[in-house]
Amino acid sequence: LVLVVDFGAQYAQLIARRVREARVYSEIVPHSMPVEEMLARQPKAIILSGGPSSVYAEGAPGISSDVFTAGVPVFGMCYGFQLMARGLGGEVAHTGAREYGRTGVTVTAPGTLLAELPEQHTVWMSHGDSVTAAPAGFDVLASTTVTPVAAFEDLDRRLAGVQWHPEVLHTEHGQKVLEHFLHKIAGCRQTWTMVNIVEEQIARIQTQIGAEGHAICGLSGGVDSAVAAAIVQRAIGERLTCVFVDHGLLRKGEAEQVERDFVAATGVDLHVVDAQQRFLDALAGVSDPEEKRKIIGREFIRVFEAAEAEVLGAAAAEGAKVAFLVQGTLYPDVVESGGGAGTSNIKSHHNVGGLPEDLEFELVEPLRTLFKDEVRLVGEQLGLPAEIVWRQPFPGPGLGIRIIGEVTRERLDILRDADAIAREELTRAGLDRDIWQMPVVLLADVRSVGVQGDGRTYGHPVVIRPVTSEDAMTADWARLPYDVLERISTRITNEVAEVNRVTLDVTSKPPGTIEWE
Ligand code: XMP
Q1: CATH class for domain 408-504?
Q2: Per the database record, which ranges form the GMPS ATP-PPase domain (predicted)?
Q3: Most buried residue, 246, 311, 438, 501, by CB count within 10 Å?
Q4: Does domain 2-185 have CATH number 2.40.50.140?
C-alpha cells in the first residue's frame, strides 16, 4: 500500500492511478489525517501531492515533519517537494520566478531517481516559490533556468522529490521517475495486477455474502454494473440474480448485448423486464428535459423494485435471511464522498414492498477500490465482450434525452438507426478509444427542406456531437476527419428516410454540455 496525501489540487487521483499503473496498490488520504494514523496503515511509501502554489500562503495546508522521520520512504511532488524541503531544514523562497506549463529541465546528476533520463527534457510545472537550498544529506539532481533545486534524493533515508508534476501526460518520462521511486528507492513489490485484483475481490465477496446469502444486481448495459455482476457471479454463482430493465431507451443492439452476449460470457442468471411500453406511456406528451429525467428515474426504480421483490421473495421463501444488493460504485465516487476504501457495510435503506420484514439488506461494492480504466481491464480479465468493456459512457435516461421534444417509439427508431450508423463509422475508422462520447441528437420538432432524387423532402435534422474528454467535467469537440464525417452524413441521409440533414456540434464544454438536454 502506498498512501497519496491529497493537498487539495485534484492531482491526487491522477497520482494514485499512476502508482497503480506501476503495479503498486495506492489509496488517497486527506492531508488533515494525523501522521500516526497514516503510519498505522503500514504504508510501503507515502507520496505528497501537489497543492496550492505557496507553502507560505495563509492557511496553506501542511503536514507534520514526523512523516519524514518515521523510516517510511516519502516522495514529494511540486507542493509536496517544497513541504519536504522546508520540513527538513532546506530553503524555500519567493524568488519571484514562476514557472507554469511546459518547462525544460536539466538533469545535473541523475542519481537513482532520474537514472537513464535524457539530460534535457520537458516537464510540466506549476509553482511560484522555489527550493533554493536542499536539506542536509540530499543530493540535488536537476535544475531549470529559474529553479536551482528542481529534484533531490536522500537514498539513506529513502526520501526524494521533484518540483514538477510527473503524473501529468505533458511531463516526459514522468512515469519512469515515479517507478524509480516506487521500485528502486522504496522497494515496493509489483503485485497490483488484474489477476490479483479479481482473486482478492472474489475472496472478499465470498466472505461478505457467506455460504447462504443471495444477491441481486441491476444491469444497465454499461461497463460498471457488468463488471460488478461478473465478479460477484464468479464468487457466488447462481445465488446472484441480475435484473435488466429494458426501458426501450437504449441504443441499437445494446439490449441484445446484455441479454445474449453478457449471459453467454458469464453464465449469470438474468431476469429481463420488458418495460418499453410503460416508459413510453409515462413519457407521452413530455418534452421538458428535467421532467423526462424525473419520469425515467421514477419508473426505473418502481420497475426495478418490483423485480427485486419477486427475485428476493423467492430466495426468502427458500430460507434466505440476508440479501445483498450489488452496486458498481467506483473509487473516485468513494474519494469524493470522503469515504474510506474498505468494503462498505452500510445497511442500505431499502424499502421494497412485498419483502419479508426480517430480510436484511447489505450493499456489495466490488469496484469500490478501482478506477474506471482498471474496471475495464478487470472486465477483460473476466472475459466480458469488448463491446461492453469498451463502451463509451451513456446517460441513464438514454436516448430519452437525445430526442429534443416528445419521446415516441417512431422517433426512438429513427434515432437508433442514425446513431448506429454513426457508431459503426467511428469504429470502422478506428477512433472509438480516441473519442470520449459521440451523442447523436434528433431535433424531432424541427423540420427542414431537402431534395432527394427528383423530390422535395421535409425531414428532421440530426446533430452529431463527438467530444474528447478526461472525465466529462470539461470536454472539447473532437476534430473528426472530414472523410469520416462525410461517410456518416451520406449514410444517415441515404439509409434513414426521415433524416435529410446531418449537422456537427463544434461547441466545447463549457459553455455547452455534452448532452443536448
Ligand atoms: P453533460 O451533458 O452534463 O454530461 O455534459 C456529462 C456526462 O454525464 C452524462 N449524463 C448523464 N448521465 N444521467 C446519467 O446517468 C443523466 O441524467 C445524465 N445527463 C448527462 C453524459 O452522457 C456525460 O457523460
Answers
A1: alpha beta
A2: 192-391
A3: 438
A4: no
Answer yes or no: is 60 a known binding residue.
no
Residue type, position 213, single letter: G
Is there a binding annotation on residue 472? no
Q: What is the pTM of this model?
A: 0.83
CATH code of the domain occupying 194-389: 3.40.50.620
Q: Is 165 a catalytic residue?
A: yes
Domain segments of the chain as ranges: 2-185, 194-389, 408-504
pLDDT, average across residues 357-371? 84
Which residues lie below 8 Å from residue 17, measured CB to CB, with a gap of 6+?
167, 371, 373
Dist CA 182 CA 44 (whole Å):
9
Percent of the chain scoring above 70 in pLDDT: 95
Nearest CA to ligand 1 atom 19: 395
Q: Does 2-185 match 194-389 in CATH topology?
A: yes
Q: What is the pLDDT of residue 453?
A: 82
Q: Flag whether 221 is marked binding.
A: yes
pLDDT for res 346: 39
Pocket of ligand 1, beta carbon within 6 A: 293, 393, 395-397, 437, 472, 509, 513-515
The letter for the amino acid at 234 is R
Range among 79-88, 322-331, 342-351 with highest mean pLDDT value: 79-88
pLDDT at residue 54 is higher than 90: no
